[in-house]
Design brief:
Number of helices: 7
Strand order of the largest sheet: 1-2
Number of domains: 1
Helix content: 55-70%
Number of strands: 2
Distance between the termini: 73 Å
Shape: extended
Structural class: mainly alpha
Order of helices and strands: HHHEHHEHH
CATH superfamily: EF-hand
Radius of gyration: 20 Å
Largest sheet: 2 strands, antiparallel
């Protein structure tokens, strides 16, 4: 018999799932506010925008909306980025970031990893993914030029 949590975390939708997702996002927003109000990362440029991007990435990767990235969530995230890793590599990556020694990455650990000075393998992969995003090509007709605009 499936558990109630599995029913609630069903991405097909429903009121229970919507409520769960809303509560999940508000808890992440509260953590983001803590980082914004704190003194540790006041020097970081565009901190609110970065935290919002981290929140969206965390929500995308935390497939069961438990609030923690477990080994399967990290595996999913890395495979999606084309960086498949072995079980032992995943375990080591999580241990580098996990401050609570729970074997998972909570949102605070995730943000500390992304904003902090310490460089972990997972951070490097995520940072690389941001830099590799394809540049948007302009669409439509090229602008009209005349003789005076030529070099």
């Amino acid at each position: 018999m499936p558990s109630a949590k599995a029913d609630v975390a069903d991405p097909q939708g429903g009121k229970a799932y919507g409520k769960l997702l809303e509560e999940f996002e508000s808890s992440l927003d509260a953590t983001n506010k803590m980082f914004i109000d704190g003194d540790d990362f006041k020097d970081v440029e565009d901190l609110p925008e970065k935290l919002e991007a981290y929140k969206l990435k965390f929500i995308e990767c935390d497939r069961d909306k438990s609030g923690d990235l477990d080994m399967m969530d990290v595996k999913y995230m890395l495979e999606k980025l084309g960086q498949a890793k072995t079980h032992l590599e995943l375990k080591k990556m999580i241990q580098e970031v996990d401050t609570t020694k729970s074997g998972t990455i909570n949102y605070t650990d995730f943000v500390m990893m992304m904003l902090g000075n310490k460089s972990s393998v997972l951070k490097l992969i995520l940072m690389f993914e941001e830099k590799v995003k394809p540049i948007e090509k302009p669409v439509g007709l090229p602008p009209k030029r005349d003789i005076s605009s030529l070099p």
